[in-house]
Design brief:
The complex is a heterodimer of chains A (127) and B (386). Chain A is an alpha+beta fold. In chain B, the strands form 7 sheets. In chain B, strands 1-2-3-4 form a 4-stranded antiparallel beta sheet, with no helix packed on it. In chain B, strands 5-6-7-8 form a 4-stranded antiparallel beta sheet, with no helix packed on it. A 4-stranded antiparallel beta sheet of chain B has the order 9-10-11-12, with no helix packed on it. Classes of the chains: A alpha+beta (127), B mainly beta (386).
Chain lengths: 127, 386
């Protein structure tokens, strides 16, 4: 009888843990200039500075992977906000993309999307 | 004892679920409007209709290609890629999505149109560019269709819609000023037929482009000057005579200038307003303006007023802005502070009786000025409530 209660209690604790994961929203945004994320069989690395942004992904599976950068940038001396995107050529195992702008411009924000096939498996925003 | 623990766990679990349901949404989600579509979406409103070219021509804002006034209402595309609609005469923006129970917070929402889109209006349709493709949709947000591919491959481009064309430069390294850009052509493509893109202009100034604008048969190129954040070089190119001409080395930059058929207008930081005669290439200083705190200014030229926005923080950010409103004789009519911005936001556009602002360009516009209050002594920003 006692072991049955213990089993039920364990199940309830597991259920509570699982539900808490499904309920609490997970935010991927970050204030850091550099970010690394290790997934199940993939790693994502993001880097942000005023003139240089890059995203890299390595993956142990056979599907094609890719990195998308969605970024905002500005010019010194005026307020116009430019938006643009860069996308790498899809690869297996490793993919990376870098955008460097000259000193007339500077990046203000970048969203990094990491894809396996067509699915976004990780995203992060740096600014 | 164990039974009591079980009961306690169950109570905690239920309480947890209920409190999660009551959690306020994130700032992103809380602004999404889940109401059903207004019946007026996609229907033309002929009240106070302007010439068609007013709606199809490009208009500069703090953002580029994110805001449209059309005969059907106004459209705004957030930096997150969601398209919003506001009925003519209204300040309220709703997601252009008719999907039942959609929370408008994921990429399967009908109002999501893609990464860094640019939007334009032409002949009863909304056109938008995502990556190297042009798409169109009906004015009610339905019937999305791919129209054409600009070029093959993964290069980026910078461009704008103007009078039924998409004008663009190819920025293969990711954006204007990206190191490695080597295409010095300006292209255009007609959006509503099967024609291929054509080269409009080839010049190395394209490699140092800050912005371009089009008036009648002329294309005006605003080029960066290295190590100079006060002045830009302005060129003109006639698509008829094919003549290329340098107009001035002392032009106000992107977001602080306007050119129509025969005249140019610009604001130069802490010097004031200037007018430029394109035929004689003469620049005339019309009104001196000098702020104690120089900051950075935008100047937007609309039919009713000229809006000068002074960003007062140094180093620059969008957090503290003062809007100065001038008439076309450069008389200061009114001013008001906008201190609602978090991160990147501000002036969106001038439509009919309202001046529209967004506290964040990542989301929909959420403040407006009622133009009937200009000059009354009661000018203020009003919150757009859902």
């Amino acid at each position: 009888m006692k072991s049955k209660y213990l089993k039920n209690t364990s199940l309830l604790i597991v259920l509570a843990i699982l539900l808490s994961y499904s309920i609490i929203p997970v935010s991927a945004s970050s204030d850091y200039y550099e970010s690394t994320y290790n997934g199940y069989n993939y790693d994502c690395r993001s880097y942000f500075s005023s003139n240089y942004i890059s995203g890299e992904m390595s993956y142990a599976g056979s599907s094609k992977i890719n990195v998308v950068l969605d970024f905002n940038y500005k010019q010194s001396g005026n307020s116009t906000v430019y938006t643009d995107s860069s996308i790498a050529i899809p690869q297996t195992s490793f993919v990376g993309i870098v955008t460097t702008i000259n000193t007339v411009y500077y990046f203000t924000h970048c969203s990094y999307l990491y894809l396996i096939g067509v699915n976004t498996v990780y995203s992060v925003g740096l600014f | 004892m164990i039974r009591k623990i079980n009961i306690l766990l169950i109570i905690l679990l239920i309480a947890g679920c209920l409190s999660s349901c009551n959690k306020p949404l994130s700032s992103e989600n809380s602004l999404f409007n889940t109401e059903t579509k207004s019946p007026a979406i996609g229907e033309i409103n002929t009240d106070g209709l302007k010439p068609d070219s007013y709606y199809t021509s490009f208009k500069q804002g703090v953002t580029i290609g994110k805001y449209l006034e059309t005969p059907y209402g106004t459209y705004y595309c957030s930096f997150y890629g969601y398209l919003y609609y506001s009925e003519k005469g209204s300040t309220k923006y709703i997601n252009l999505c008719n999907k039942p129970d959609c929370t408008h917070s994921s990429k399967d929402c009908n109002s999501y149109i893609g990464n860094s889109p640019v939007i334009g209006y032409y002949d009863g349709k909304i056109y938008y560019k995502v990556w190297n493709n042009i798409y169109c949709m009906d004015m009610d947000g339905s019937n999305h269709k791919a129209v054409k591919t600009l070029y093959e491959g993964y290069d980026s481009n910078f461009g704008l819609f103007h009078n039924g064309y998409y004008y663009y430069v190819i920025t293969k390294s990711g954006g204007l000023g990206a190191i490695g850009n080597d295409d010095n052509n300006l292209y255009r493509v007609k959006v509503d037929d099967n024609s291929k893109p054509e080269i409009v202009l080839t010049n190395d100034a394209i490699l140092h482009l800050s912005f371009f604008t089009i008036a009648e048969d002329n294309i005006y190129i605003i080029k960066n000057i290295l190590n100079n954040s006060l002045f830009w070089t302005l060129y003109s190119y006639s698509t008829v005579s094919k003549s290329w001409s340098k107009l001035t080395d002392a032009w106000g930059g992107t977001g602080a200038s306007y050119i129509n058929d025969d005249a140019g207008y610009c604001y130069i930081s802490n010097k004031g307003f200037y007018e430029f005669d394109i035929d004689t290439k003469q620049m005339k200083h019309i009104k001196s303006i000098e702020f104690e705190n120089e900051g950075i200014c935008s100047a937007f030229y609309y039919p009713d007023y000229i809006y000068l926005i002074h960003y007062t923080n140094e180093p620059f950010d969008f957090l503290n802005q003062i809007l100065y409103i001038y008439d076309w004789d450069y008389n200061l009519i009114d001013s008001v502070e906008f201190d609602k911005v978090y991160r990147t936001g501000g002036f969106v556009g001038d439509v009919e009786g309202y001046i529209i602002f967004a506290s964040s360009f990542n989301e929909k516009p959420d403040y407006y000025i009622d133009k009937s209050e200009i000059g009354t002594g009661n000018l203020m920003f009003h919150k757009i409530e859902d």
